[in-house]
Specification:
It comes from Kolteria novifilia. It is an enzyme of class 4 (lyase). InterPro entries: TrpB-like_PALP, TrpB-like_PALP_sf. This is Phenylserine dehydratase. The protein is globular. The strands form two sheets. Strands 1-2-10-7-8-9 form a six-stranded mixed sheet, sandwiched between helices. Strands 5-4-3-6 form a four-stranded parallel sheet, with helices on both faces. It is 45% helix and 15% strand. The chain has two domains: 197 residues, Rossmann fold (3-Layer(aba) Sandwich); 91 residues, Rossmann fold, CATH 3.40.50. Helix 1 crosses helix 9 and helix 3 crosses helix 8. The longest helix is centred in the middle third of the chain and has 17 residues. Helix 6 links the parallel strand 4 and strand 5. The protein is α/β, with parallel strands linked by helices.
């Protein structure tokens, strides 16, 4: 894969995705001692950057494959994104979701018209259920992050940010499965100037950091974190991209994520998920690990469950 794949995805996606705005905050600039530019993918269709990759993957299918439908497994934003993309492009979508999936994300998938099959909240159960549905339906697997079509689509968020904000020193990207990170790493190659890319993740789900330092891809993290969207092992296609191109992997504590989330809600008035707060939390907690003055931060999503707790 190359930067050209991300440009090709941008052309395909132009009629379908929102060109999301970039927000700034003088208060957060002062708090961090940097100039911060927040790419608001929480305002993307389906509420997250995942809509880019999901839509691009469907656009790359031929008519026969579209008629047979697609299958995925996801506990969150990819499920909703693929469901909406399927509705818009008239492609049947079947989603395998764990019983622990957030209610707001289950509701969104249903409202977008996808079929849901629930399974136990383990990777083995997800994969077994997905294989069964693929065999029964003859559909195409659209992996949430370990798919070149997905990676290229996610990278279009970074391309837009480069167009909207010139002369960035670095981009801060939350990392779970690594689709957004991989796409961003491809998107910045050859840009002038070429910003360094910093992968940010919770201390409690630090498989990317362990893989980056050891040189070996790590299993899915077992820790619990408020940034539930990042509790995923780095994908096989994204791991080598990280090893070759990423400038650093920086982790943040749960306290740091919660404080950054509060700051984003209070200072920017943007509704974001805790996963979106991980880059800001990483910067505030480990400022010396992140170089540069002008920093782009991708706010990955805004699908927060606001239903009353009982």
């Amino acid at each position: 894969m190359t930067r050209d794949d991300v440009f090709a995805a941008q052309r395909r996606l132009a009629p379908w995705v929102h060109r999301t705005p970039v927000h700034t905050s003088r208060l957060l600039d002062r708090e961090s001692g940097r100039e911060l530019f927040f790419k608001c993918e929480n305002l993307q269709r389906a509420g997250a950057f995942k809509f880019r990759g999901a839509t691009h993957a469907l656009l790359c299918l031929d008519e026969i494959a579209r008629s047979r439908g697609v299958v995925t497994h996801s506990s969150g934003n990819h499920a909703g994104a693929l469901a909406l993309a399927g509705q818009l492009l008239q492609v049947p979508v079947h989603v395998v979701m764990p019983t622990s999936a957030p209610r707001v994300k289950v509701t969104a998938v249903r409202e977008y018209g996808a079929t849901i099959s629930f399974c136990e909240p383990t990777l083995q159960a997800r994969e077994e259920t997905t294989r069964r549905i693929l065999d029964e339906s003859g559909g195409t697997l659209i992996h949430p992050y370990d798919d070149e079509r997905i990676i290229a689509g996610q990278g279009t968020a970074a391309l837009e940010l480069l167009e909207q904000v010139p002369n960035l020193d670095a981009m801060l990207v939350p990392v779970g499965g690594g689709g957004l990170l991989g796409g961003t790493l491809l998107a910045v190659q050859g840009a002038v100037p070429e910003p360094r890319v910093i992968a940010c993740e919770p201390e409690a789900a630090n498989d990317a950091y362990l893989g980056w330092t050891s040189g070996e891809r790590q299993p899915a993290p077992s820790g619990t974190t408020i940034a539930d969207g990042l509790r995923t092992a780095l994908g096989e296609r994204n791991f080598p991209l990280m090893r070759e191109y990423v400038h650093a992997v920086v982790t943040v504590s749960e306290t740091g994520i919660e404080e950054a989330w509060r700051l984003l809600l209070e200072r920017t008035k943007l509704l974001v998920e805790p996963s979106s707060a991980v880059p800001l939390g990483s910067l505030l907690e480990q400022p010396d690990a992140i170089p540069g003055k002008r920093l782009g931060i991708i706010l990955s999503g805004g699908n927060v469950d606001l239903s009353p707790r009982r």
